[in-house]
Amino acid sequence: MTRVKICCISSIEEANLAIKHGAYAIGLVSNMPSGPGVISENLIEEIAASVPLTVLTFLLTSKQLVDEIIFQHKKCKTNTIQICDRLLSGTHKQLKEALPGIKIVQVVHVIDENSLKEAIEISENVDAILLDSGNQRLTVKELGGTGRIHDWQISRKIRESVNVPVFLAGGLNPHNVCEAIRFVRPFGVDICSGVRTNGKLDEQKLKTFFDKVREADNN
Length: 219
Known about the structure:
The protein has helices spanning 12-20, 41-50, 66-76, 92-98, 114-122, 152-161, 177-184, 203-218, and strands at 3-6, 25-29, 56-61, 80-83, 103-109, 128-132, 166-168, 188-191, 196-197, 200-201. By secondary structure, the chain is of the alpha/beta class. Strand 2 (25-29), helix 2 (41-50) and strand 3 form a beta-alpha-beta unit. It is globular. The chain starts with a strand and ends with a helix.
């Protein structure tokens, strides 16, 4: 089955609900320049500690310095780090060496064909890549949670060109996830607003989303 990451988890109750329906991973959003789902580092630590070891807990960070990411992770204690912006100081290799056993996932915001080159270069030193629809070029950066889809043609090229798992994010919902999976064939899909109502995780939308993922996998 295509793995499902439910992002923007804001409580232990939401984490439990996502896991009940089959979440492979949950996303815990730390401070961001824009976008939904931001919670405190104390709450991230609390939620991560409550989750079974079989489920991946992603710390979404906007930090761009390896030393700062390491410091933040020591507070939050997730088993995975999702870097939502480009590193400015330090390398993915240094991060992995400093945090043995912690999975490193780099976000690539799919804007144009240059994203393909970026993903290929990054893939050598990370555990997975997550393709999203943000834009780091804006005055106020978008690092996820935009609710927009991007060019799945480029996403498919990236998935075909790298040797690490690829998660697909950006504007997914129960209505388009079948098409997304069939076209891109990602390792996993990542969703936030598409399974929420008024900002809260909606169990019916969640159930429908998982049903659609299974439908795509079975056809």
